[in-house]
Amino acid sequence: MQQKMLGGVCAGLADYFDLDISLVRLIFVGVALLTAILPMVLFYLIAWLVIPVQPKE
């Protein structure tokens, strides 16, 4: 999982659900724009704290 940009939340979700990282990022941005951004920023911060860090290989 070398594709993380900020906290690696989208990369982690893409890896977990076996999806393309670009698709997950587009969905995240789309939902953020549709929900006035603040709820998705809060979701991202909470997910960043809750999702465990994957050990480096």
Automatic annotation (TrEMBL):
<keyword id="KW-1003">Cell membrane</keyword>
<feature type="transmembrane region" description="Helical">
    <location>
        <begin position="26"/>
        <end position="51"/>
    </location>
</feature>
<keyword id="KW-0472">Membrane</keyword>
<dbReference type="InterPro" id="IPR007168">
    <property type="entry name" value="Phageshock_PspC_N"/>
</dbReference>
<dbReference type="InterPro" id="IPR052027">
    <property type="entry name" value="PspC"/>
</dbReference>
<dbReference type="Pfam" id="PF04024">
    <property type="entry name" value="PspC"/>
</dbReference>
<keyword id="KW-0812">Transmembrane</keyword>
<protein>
    <recommendedName>
        <fullName>Phage shock protein PspC N-terminal domain-containing protein</fullName>
    </recommendedName>
</protein>
<feature type="domain" description="Phage shock protein PspC N-terminal">
    <location>
        <begin position="2"/>
        <end position="53"/>
    </location>
</feature>
<dbReference type="GO" id="GO:0005886">
    <property type="term" value="C:plasma membrane"/>
</dbReference>
<keyword id="KW-1133">Transmembrane helix</keyword>
